[in-house]
């Protein structure tokens, strides 16, 4: 028994992993362990306690400017498969938008004085 991808799997797999690995998994329906999944590019990290690692990552993110988080997410969603020119143009535009925002000033203050961490305001980046 093998597997035929569903819900865009053929597209997702070609973006994530090599064709020979994709074919092997699809043709054999082989279950793979976490080490093999990492080798194939299907997972980024392996953790003994995935929930704890995810929580640590979330804490790292909430201590960053909400505008930086939103801008990076939007940048990579909009440019991952675009032309280099479009990627560079959006990168520049998003940099300007973030640098002009109030949260950028808060981020600079937080970095300069770790003992005094002013709160970020609600995200302004749209």
UniProtKB/TrEMBL annotation:
Keywords: Lyase. GO terms for molecular function: enoyl-CoA hydratase activity. Residues 108-118 have a biased composition (Basic and acidic residues). Residues 107-126 are annotated as: Disordered. Transmembrane segments: none annotated. Its EC number is 4.2.1.17. This is Enoyl-CoA hydratase. It comes from Vibrio ishigakensis. The lineage of its organism: Bacteria, Pseudomonadati, Pseudomonadota, Gammaproteobacteria, Vibrionales.
